[in-house]
């Protein structure tokens, strides 16, 4: 079941997405929340911080786990996803940072890093009340890139050239050589276990992949397409990213 929420622009959809996450926390103050990085959710996190500052939201009993982390980057590296989460959200709200989980990018043994993260997800999360996702230009969710099959558990992934270029464009001061080529990512199996999934897409650059993922066949070559099989998905985007055809299909 997919519900589409389309708003005029980035600011409006960020507010709507923050409202959905806030609702999950208000309903369950001990909510388990899955979080994402990238340029898309920055506005959503800013809106959540505003709600906290206004006294409308309490993170003190919330547990979070992030989708992914670059292999080789520690949390103090300003391009790591731990650093992103701290600076965009955790440093500004009353969350207990020991209850925020991100794969350990400094663990060099990839197999161990992945199994450790699966163990954390199993023990600390079980399943998310709500999972926030972005969508990659190639349809990836987390860093689960197009592949022969949907990966169930946390894996070490070699990033696609398009992803490396997208990330260099937006981050790493535009420097292609600095973007790590591998990442640890939560598997699609754990993402699909979430009770509710909020996938965001903003900007004209996402329009085509959103159509592929939500109007096309379910295939591991477009990893986000598997969300068509989940019982509770909200696709939230701006007018640039969500076409009329997508709105029509899920009316
Ligand atoms: P973006 O990345 O928000 O920076 O576009 C999305 C993603 O790769 O999941």
Q: Would you give an account of this structure?
A:
The chain is an alpha/beta fold. It has one domain (2-249): 3-Layer(aba) Sandwich (Rossmann fold), CATH 3.40.50. Helix content is 33%, strand content 17%. It has helices at 10-27, 42-53, 81-88, 110-125, 161-170, 188-192, 207-215, 244-249, and strands spanning 2-7, 32-35, 63-66, 68-70, 100-101, 130-133, 155-158, 182-185, 197-201, 233-238. The chain has a seven-stranded parallel sheet with strand order 1-10-9-6-2-3-5, sandwiched between helices. The protein has a three-stranded antiparallel sheet with strand order 4-8-7. The termini are close together. It binds 2-phosphoglycolic acid. 2-phosphoglycolic acid (PGA) is lined by residues 38-40, 134-136, 170.
Give the gist of this structure:
The chain is 33% helix and 17% strand. It is an alpha/beta fold and 251 residues long. Bound molecules: 2-phosphoglycolic acid.
Report the C-alpha radius of gyration, rounded. Answer: 17 Å
CATH top level is: Alpha Beta
Please name the CATH topology: Rossmann fold
Mean pLDDT across residues: 97
Oligomeric nature of the chains = single chain
Task: Give the count of structural domains.
Answer: 1
- The total strand number stands at 10
Shape category = globular
For the termini, the CA-CA separation is: 11 Å
Give the % helix: 25-40%
Kindly name the structural category: alpha/beta
CATH architecture: 3-Layer(aba) Sandwich
Ligand identities:
2-phosphoglycolic acid
Strand content: 15-25%
Summarize the helix and strand pattern as letters: EHEHEEHEHEEHEHEHEH
| Regions with little confidence, pLDDT below 50 for 5+ residues | none
């Amino acid at each position: 079941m997919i519900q589409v929420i389309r708003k005029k622009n980035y600011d409006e959809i960020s507010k709507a997405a923050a409202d959905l996450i806030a609702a999950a926390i208000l309903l369950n103050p001990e909510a388990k929340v899955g979080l994402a990085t990238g340029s898309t959710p920055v506005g959503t996190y800013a809106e959540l911080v505003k709600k906290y500052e206004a006294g409308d939201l309490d993170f003190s009993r919330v547990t979070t786990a992030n989708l992914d982390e670059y292999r080789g980057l520690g949390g103090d590296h300003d391009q790591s996803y731990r650093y992103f989460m701290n600076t965009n959200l955790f440093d500004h709200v009353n969350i207990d940072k020991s209850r925020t989980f991100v794969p350990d990018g400094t663990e060099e043994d990839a197999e161990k890093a992945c199994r450790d993260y699966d163990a954390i997800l199993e023990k600390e999360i079980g399943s998310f009340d709500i999972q926030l996702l972005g969508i990659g230009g190639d349809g990836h969710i987390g860093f689960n890139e197009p592949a022969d099959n949907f990966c169930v558990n946390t894996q070490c992934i070699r990033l696609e050239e398009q992803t490396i270029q997208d990330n260099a464009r937006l981050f790493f001061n535009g420097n292609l050589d600095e973007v790590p080529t591998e990442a640890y990512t939560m598997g699609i199996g754990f993402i699909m276990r979430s009770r509710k999934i909020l996938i965001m897409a903003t900007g004209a650059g996402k329009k085509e992949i959103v159509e592929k993922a939500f109007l096309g066949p379910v295939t591991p070559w477009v990893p986000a397409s598997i969300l068509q099989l989940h019982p509770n998905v909200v696709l939230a985007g701006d007018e640039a990213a969500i076409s009329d055809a997508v709105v029509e299909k899920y009316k």
